[in-house]
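Researcher: Re-running this chain for the archive, since the previous output was lost when a drive failed. Same request as before.
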Amino acid sequence: MGWDVSAETLRQLARRMAQSGKFCSWRLIQIELRFMQGIREAESCFGDTAIRFELDDLCRQAQRRPAAAPARTQTQQAAAAFAYRRPAAAHLRLRTAN
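Model: Regenerated structure tokens:
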């Protein structure tokens, strides 16, 4: 079952996909929309070279951005807080001269 979407709606969706950093070209976005999402209109939506260049440029820009660090789980946050507060081990303390 395919979706029925307008060309402009489809282009906006493609732009968001390009900006996600998950795609490296307009062709992969078209494949995702047409075959994975079942949007038949995606087959003819990317015939304009201007949208192709725009999507490729957005893909390149998104992939150049540094990836966001994954969010820490509560367990990882608690472990980090514990490690920060823990006193130095006794064997690491400086010895005083007798």
